[in-house]
Amino acid sequence: MALSKPESGTGPAVRGPDRPGLDDPGRGRRLGVDVGSVRVGVSLSDPSPLLATPLVTLARDERTGRDLDQLRDIVAEHQVVEVVVGLPTTLAGRHGVAARTAQHYADALGARLTVPVRLADERLTTVTASRLLTGQGVRGRRQRAVVDQVAAVEILQAWLDARAAALARAGEGNRP
């Protein structure tokens, strides 16, 4: 678990992203989480796990942690075996305030769960999601309602793809 120096030089170092496939829980659904200051985008994989799909956008509630409780309930409802939280990283590979926020969020979520909570490198996922939606004619209020879910899909799908590649390299591609 590598630590990187925060971009601004203030605050504690940010734990680097986890590596897909390490301590893998095997088959089962994964949950992708895109943490924003106002909303939390959530995606869910199929049980295989091969494909990420949008699930829901939650209102972020820093005061009461209601969004964290909702995620706990979603994990239980869908029998999730692993949660993947996006870790914002600059193109230069640095971590700033948003990364510290995501790490804190992942830690708070992990305290409520019995399944592993991983951090995954997320570079430009919200930008990519916004461009995808704009290209499909989804703009303004309609876009804001779903952009976080699409970003969560990008985070989770990248994790699933990297996981499959890591397991294949390790000769565990057909692992249950």
SS content category? alpha/beta
Largest sheet report: 5 strands, mixed
The CATH class assignment is Alpha Beta
Question: How much helical structure, as a percent, in the residues?
Answer: 25-40%
CATH fold-level topology: Nucleotidyltransferase, domain 5
Quick overview of this protein structure:
The protein is α/β, with parallel strands linked by helices and 176 residues long. It has helices at 66-77, 97-110, 125-135, 140-169; strands at 3-4, 14-15, 29-35, 39-45, 52-59, 80-88, 117-122.
Features:
disordered N terminus, Nucleotidyltransferase, domain 5, alpha/beta, globular, 7 strands, five-stranded mixed beta sheet, 4 helices
Q: Can you offer a commentary on this structure?
A:
This protein is α/β, with parallel strands linked by helices and 176 residues long. The chain has a single domain, classed as Nucleotidyltransferase, domain 5, CATH 3.30.420. 38% of the residues lie in helices and 23% in strands. The protein contains four helices and seven strands, in the order E-E-E-E-E-H-E-H-E-H-H. A five-stranded mixed beta sheet has the order 5-4-3-6-7, with helices on both faces. Strands 1-2 form a two-stranded antiparallel ribbon. Strand 6, helix 2 and strand 7 form a beta-alpha-beta unit. Helix 3 packs across helix 4. The longest helix is centred in the last third of the chain and has 30 residues. The protein is globular, with a radius of gyration of 16 Å. The protein starts with a strand and ends in a 7-residue tail after the last helix. The N terminus is likely disordered.
